[in-house]
Amino acid sequence: MNEHPDTTQRDEQVGRLLDTVELDHGPAYWDTVRSATGPHLAKLRRRPLWARRPVQVGVAVAVAAAVVTIVLIGLPSRNGGTPTPANAAQLMLAAMDNGLLNTTTVQGDFSETTTVDASGHAPAWAEWQGSFAADAAGDSRYEIALAGRSAGVGVVSHPSMTGPPVPSSDRPNAIWAVLPPARYVSVYDASAMAVRWASWDASGNLTDHGSARRWPTFRWGQTPDDLLQFWVNNLAQAALVHAAVAGAADLPVRAVIYEGRPAWQATVDLLPTYRATADYFSVLREVVTVDQASGFVVRTVLSATPGPAAKTPGYPYALSPYTIELRITHLKTDAALPASTFTDLPKGVPNPAPSGAAVAPNGSPPVTAGTLAQAAASAGFKPLTPDRLPAGFVLSATSGNAHMGIDSLISQFVVSPREIDQLYRCGFEWFELDVIPWNGQNRDLENQDLKRLKEVLLPKPVIVVLHGGSQAGATAYLWQGSGSDSATEGRFSDHGMLPLWASSTLQFYGNGYCVYLWGNIPSKDLLRIADSLRVAK
Amino acid sequence: MQTHESTAAGSGQRCDERVVAAARRGDEKAFIAILQAYDRRLRRIASCLLGDRDLMDDALQEVAVKAARALPALRDPDAVGAWLARTTYRTCLDMLRRQRGLVLLAPEDLPESGDGVADFVDELAARDAVTRLLATLTPEQRAAVVLVDQEGLDYRLAAELLDIPAGTIGSRLSKARAVLRRAVSASLLEELS
User: Fold this and answer.
1) Is the per-residue pLDDT at B137 higher than 50?
2) The CATH number of the domain where A314 resides is what?
3) Which of A265, A268, A465, B136 is deepest in the core (most CB within 10 A)?
4) Cβ-defined contact of B25 to A16 (cutoff 8 Å)
5) Which residue on chain A is closest to B147 by alpha carbon?
6) B192/A13 Cβ within 8 A
7) Which residues of A touch B114 (CB under 8 A)?
8) Is residue B91 part of a domain?
9) Are A497 and A393 members of one domain?
10) What CATH number did the domain enclosing B161 receive?
């Protein structure tokens, strides 16, 4: 058919035929678009005016328009109360995305209080306080001190470890807690993958210091900074709010003032990971406060109320409300921080050179590696790597035979001494790709594993058939949770009694590999990454 | 066949200059208004090329992000619609190239045996007869019939959107229409008429 370019001949019947496949958007489409584009629009709002348009007579008008736009979009209305809840939730989410992706450094002070109001008794409580600094490269510094504890909290001291409070078997209505030393400092140099620490007793005597080449493990129970790194990196709360906003268009959000700064406050109901846990806690609720200017979480209050199984003798936590409150004050973002912030211990403490390797929880020593090739050499196999990454993400660290965060809940039946982990970051967002060689060994156990997960876990997995990359055809399980993420999973499960599910965790047994992908990025991104995995060259 | 004027149907809606300017300053409402103005056309392109609502939404979300990033360069309000359509077309092609489609299923939909997964996915893809018909066309042919036969663009505008010579549109249309007409039963066509 050689028609003139300007022809307008149209086949109406074909047009109508095509009309029958016209599709509507999914229910959350526009919310998702707002969330995805919010950070980019926020950048435009922050651009200097000269970059938006040539300097001309209309600059004054442009300034006025920009101010109006910022007021309308970024702040509560002054003449009619606050934004509508759904709108406020979207604004909050956009600010949080922007903060995570574009903030270069963050620092401030913090305090955390844990309270158990055991039935008929004075509450047991413990409190920490300190300061922190972190940057988008993954460097961090924490200074922590035990600020106080009630008589209901027994203390198990340990020079370099701390842990969650646990029920006391010999003192009714009391808990034992492995609490940090009187003072503890930890610095982590991401470029060298080196962590250094020091601790002091109540008299100010240095009781311990050391170093190791390892990643921050994000695991409570190894060093005190691990948990706090989660808190201050806002990974847990950001992903939690992400999931909550995506799951509920009417998420209650209101404008508040926190520490003299405009903030949003959202109340999120959480779904426990385990069916059994749900019996103990009828309601798990977290109130999250987000600083409007930076998008960072500045306060969280988690509370649990007892469920039907709370009458179990010897289970003090479920008898009455249990509360964990974290407050961040003097928050400062994007300030220049000297490199020594993340490499030097306080004056007077020998600064040890990193050496050796921390023993991983599964007993196999991690071998940090400068490159993926080195990791492959140490682990003895070629890992999978993603062909496609979300915009801006780069490989931040890798290691072979390490155990840096695989969720033991999922992987307990995958028995392998060999593993390669890859950590990818963009700003304060991250995902981890853990790869284990797998050729069908323990298949029966693994099948049992999946069946067991379906039985004991409340969140239902979404089943995804991978159609791209070397793992095409694999059936993957994606757990998205109902308002929690991998960070909160680490946080709460290791608090012992409030296990919540990781948000974006994708797992599959594929062609020669067992793979775990998890992080604080949207699950759609995890899927795209999984669909692009190929064997590293 | 019917001849149409190429004006309104051809050029589609045009966004107000002030709306585009506001979006370029980062105004979310203005930006969403632009996307909504062209949404139907973009949905038609994406749904016919991809044949799946989730994939369509993924593609259009990607287009939205690209548009948000490209806003500083989108100075001409007349060009916004064409830019969005072209970007949608290219994004869908990229998506088709890099993946044959992720199929999200509810757990209860999945067959117990892993061996049945492939068949199940095939069945899912074949549910819609028209989608199946479209699948017999190349993505390029699909785009041509969407823009001309569904959207009513003239060849020149369609070619401009697809960044191809106008003559190529004609040949793609010819092949696509022939395939569709051969495949669709007369009764279905009558019903549609």
Assistant:
1) yes
2) 2.50.20
3) A268
4) no
5) A15
6) yes
7) 475
8) yes
9) yes
10) 1.20.140.160
pLDDT digits (tens, 9 = 90+) for B145-155: 888 888 888 88
In chain A, the number of structural domains is: 3
A115 with A258, same domain? Answer: yes
Rounded Cα gap, residues A335 and A11, in angstroms: 62
Report the largest interatomic distance among the alpha carbons of chain A, rounded to a whole angstrom: 93
**A443 Cβ under 8 Å from any chain B Cβ:** no
Chain B partners within 8 Å of A27 (Cβ) = none
Residue A152 lies in a domain: yes
Q: Based on the domain organization, do A213 and A137 belong to the same domain?
A: yes
Distance, CA of A189 to CA of A339 (rounded, Å): 9
List the domain range (segments joined by +) for residue B153. Answer: 8-102+124-192
pTM: 0.54
pLDDT bin (cut points 50, 70, 90) of residue A386 is: very high
**CA-based nearest residue to A263, from A272, A253, A271, A273:** A253
Structure tokens at A31: 């919310």
Residue A18 in contact with partner chain B when CB distance is under 8 A? yes
Residues 23-52 of B with CB under 8 A from A: 23-29, 31-32, 35, 39, 43-44, 47-48, 51
Window 122-181 of B, Cβ < 8 Å to A: 128, 130-131, 133-134, 145-146, 148-150, 152, 154-156, 159, 166-167, 169-171, 173-174, 176-177, 180-181
Q: How many domains does chain B have?
A: 1
Is position A3 within any domain? no
Residue B35 tokens, joined = 């996307």
For residue A473, give its domain range: 367-535
pLDDT in tens, A311-331: 655 554 445 566 778 888 999
Over A57-113, what HEC string results? CCHHHHHHHHHHHHHHHHCCCCCCCCCCHHHHHHHHHHHHHHHHHHCCEEEEEEEEE
